[in-house]
C-alpha cells in the first residue's frame, strides 16, 4: 500500500543534504539525484520540502520522473488532508509565474484560427504573443548577439534561384529516401531539447505529426518525454540525437535501449556545443524568476543548466566507439561548420553530416549554415556524393529547401518553427509541415 506523506513530514526534508519534493501529488527523495540532475541541482534545491509540480510540468512529461529514478526514491503520495494555509501560500509563491499578475488583470486573448496561419513566420508571431516569457526565451534565443541565428535566414534570402522553363513539369516527385526512411518531402523534424516548452505533448505530438505527413522526427537526448514513450508514439521510424555523456556508459545504455525497438534508423551525434554558449535572452528570464537558478561567471538559463552532463572531450576517434555500439545503423555528425570538418567526417567513416550551427545557439559569429553548404559544394564536392549531407538553421519556406537541395543537401531540418506550431497541437504541427508542400511543388523537379 502506498504511503501517505504529510506536509509536516515533507517540510522536515528541506535542505541540500536531505531533499524531498512533491511532483503531481507524489513525494520523491532526490537527495542522491540532485547533483546528477541534467538541469542542474539548484532548481531541485529551490523546491526542497516543497511542491515543484508547476515548474516540473513546464518542461517534463508526468511519467519522466518515475521512469528516470529508482523505485527507492519514491516515498509515497502527498496526504492532501494535511495541507495547511502555509503550504498553499508557499505553493503559490514558488509556482506562480512572474507575469501571473499581469495575465490575471488582462482579458484572455484568443489565438488566431489555424486557417489564418499561412506560413511559419505566422506561427512565430503567435508564439511570441501566447507563450509565457520563459518558454519563449528558451526557444527563441540564440547565443550572445544572435548574429548567427539571424544570419541563417538572411543569407538564404541572398541566394537567387535561376528557374528553368519548358521542362515538362506536369508530374513532380518530391520524395526522398533518407537512411532507409521514405520521406514525402526532403525535410525532417530537427532535434530540440525540452520540446514540451512549445506546448501540447512535445515530442509525442511531433512524432504523430511526422507520421501523418510522411516525414521523420529526430528526437533529442534531453527530451521532455522518456525516449521509449516517444518511440511508442512513433509509427515507423525515428532518428536519435545524442549528446555524449561524460559517463560514457550512460550514453551507451541509452543508445542500446533505443535501438532495441528497431525504430532508430540513424544516430545524430551533436558536436557543436562542447561548451554551452551564453544565451542572454534565456538568462534574463532566469534572473527574473527568483531564487533557484544559480548564476556563475558563464551565466545561467535553461540551456546551461540542462547541459552539465555533456562531454567536452568528444573527438573523431569516438566514431569507432559509436560504431561498435550501433553496428550498421548510420552515424551522422551534427554541427559541421566548415568544409574541412565535413571532409574529416567522410574520412572517419560517418554516413552523414548535418551542417548546423545549432540554430545560432553555438558560437555566435559562426557562418550561416547555407554558406557552409556552399563552401562544401565548392571545396570538397566529394562529400556530397560520398555521404548524406543534411542542413538546418533559418529555413522557413519551401523555396529555402529548394536552395539547399540545389546546393547538394539531401534534406533540411526544421526545429524552432515546429516548436512554435505546437501551440496548436498536432493539427498545428501538421499544418506547419504541410505549409511548405505547395511551395516545393511549384518549383518542379529538384
Mean pLDDT: 89
Q: Going by CATH, what is the homologous superfamily of the largest domain?
A: Aldolase class I
Count of helix runs: 22
Sheet with most strands: 8 strands, parallel
- The proportion of residues forming helix, as a percent range, comes to 25-40%
Structural class: alpha/beta
The first-to-last residue Cα distance is 63 Å
Overall number of strands: 16
Strand order of the largest sheet: 9-16-15-14-13-12-11-10
Query: For the CA atoms, what is the radius of gyration?
Result: 23 Å
Provide the CATH top-level class of the largest domain: Alpha Beta
Tally the structural domains. 2
- Unreliable stretches (pLDDT < 50, length at least 5) are 100-105
CATH topology of the largest domain: TIM Barrel
Assigned CATH architecture of the largest domain: Alpha-Beta Barrel
**What portion of the residues fall into strands of 2 or more residues?**
5-15%
Tell me, briefly, the overall form. globular
Helices and strands, with pairings:
Blueprint: E1 4-5, H1 7-11, E2 14-15, E3 18-23, E4 26-29, H2 42-46, E5 50-51, H3 53-59, H4 64-68, E6 74-78, H5 85-95, H6 100-105, H7 120-130, H8 133-140, H9 147-156, E7 176-178, E8 181-183, E9 187-189, H10 203-213, E10 218-219, H11 227-232, E11 238-242, H12 248-259, E12 264-270, H13 280-287, H14 302-305, H15 318-326, E13 331-336, H16 339-347, E14 352-355, H17 369-379, H18 382-386, E15 388-392, H19 398-406, E16 411-414, H20 416-421, H21 425-434, H22 437-441
Parallel strand pairs: 1-6, 3-5, 9-16, 10-11, 11-12, 12-13, 13-14, 14-15, 15-16
Antiparallel strand pairs: 2-3, 3-4, 4-6, 7-8
Amino acid at each position: 500500500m502506498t504511503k501517505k506523506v504529510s506536509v509536516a513530514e515533507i517540510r522536515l526534508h528541506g535542505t541540500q543534504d536531505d531533499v524531498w519534493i512533491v511532483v503531481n501529488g507524489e513525494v520523491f527523495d532526490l537527495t542522491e539525484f540532485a547533483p546528477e540532475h541534467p538541469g542542474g541541482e539548484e532548481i531541485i534545491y529551490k523546491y526542497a520540502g516543497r511542491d515543484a509540480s508547476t515548474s516540473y510540468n513546464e518542461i517534463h512529461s508526468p511519467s519522466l520522473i518515475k521512469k528516470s529514478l529508482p523505485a527507492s526514491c519514491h516515498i509515497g503520495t502527498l496526504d492532501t488532508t494535511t495541507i495547511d494555509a502555509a503550504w498553499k501560500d508557499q505553493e503559490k509563491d514558488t509556482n506562480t509565474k512572474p507575469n501571473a499578475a499581469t495575465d490575471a488583470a488582462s482579458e484572455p486573448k484568443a489565438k488566431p484560427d489555424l486557417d489564418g496561419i499561412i506560413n511559419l513566420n505566422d506561427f512565430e508571431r503567435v508564439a511570441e504573443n501566447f507563450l509565457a516569457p520563459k518558454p519563449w526565451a528558451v526557444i527563441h534565443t540564440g547565443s550572445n548577439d544572435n548574429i548567427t541565428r539571424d544570419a541563417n535566414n538572411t543569407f538564404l534570402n541572398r541566394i537567387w534561384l535561376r528557374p528553368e522553363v519548358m521542362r515538362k513539369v506536369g508530374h513532380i516527385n518530391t520524395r526522398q529516401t533518407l537512411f532507409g526512411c521514405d520521406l514525402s518531402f526532403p525535410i525532417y523534424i530537427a532535434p530540440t531539447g525540452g520540446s514540451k516548452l512549445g506546448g501540447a505533448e512535445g515530442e509525442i505530438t511531433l512524432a504523430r505529426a511526422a507520421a501523418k505527413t510522411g516525414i521523420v522526427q529526430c528526437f533529442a537526448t534531453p527530451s521532455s518525454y522518456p525516449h521509449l514513450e516517444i518511440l511508442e508514439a512513433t509509427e515507423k521510424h525515428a532518428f536519435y540525437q545524442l549528446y555524449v555523456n561524460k559517463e560514457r556508459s550512460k550514453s551507451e545504455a541509452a543508445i542500446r535501449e533505443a535501438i532495441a525497438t528497431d525504430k532508430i534508423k540513424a544516430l545524430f551525434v551533436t558536436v557543436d556545443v562542447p561548451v554551452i554558449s551564453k544565451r542572454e535572452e534565456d538568462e534574463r528570464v532566469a534572473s527574473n524568476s527568483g531564487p533557484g537558478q544559480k548564476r556563475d561567471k558563464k551565466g545561467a538559463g535553461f540551456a546551461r543548466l540542462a547541459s552539465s552532463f555533456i562531454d567536452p572531450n568528444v573527438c573523431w576517434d569516438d566514431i569507432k566507439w559509436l560504431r561498435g555500439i550501433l553496428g550498421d545503423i548510420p552515424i551522422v555528425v551534427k554541427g559541421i561548420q566548415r568544409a574541412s570538418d565535413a571532409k574529416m567526417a567522410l574520412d572517419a567513416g560517418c554516413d552523414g553530416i548535418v551542417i548546423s550551427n545549432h540554430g545560432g545557439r553555438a558560437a555566435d559569429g559562426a557562418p550561416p549554415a547555407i554558406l557552409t553548404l556552399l563552401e562544401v559544394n565548392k571545396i570538397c564536392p566529394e562529400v556530397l556524393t560520398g555521404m548524406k549531407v543534411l542542413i538546418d538553421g533559418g529555413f522557413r519556406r519551401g523555396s529555402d529547401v529548394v536552395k539547399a537541395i540545389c546546393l547538394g543537401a539531401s534534406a533540411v531540418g526544421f526545429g524552432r518553427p515546429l516548436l512554435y506550431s505546437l501551440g496548436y497541437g498536432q493539427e498545428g504541427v501538421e499544418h506547419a509541415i504541410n505549409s511548405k508542400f505547395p511551395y516545393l511543388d511549384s518549383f518542379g523537379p529538384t
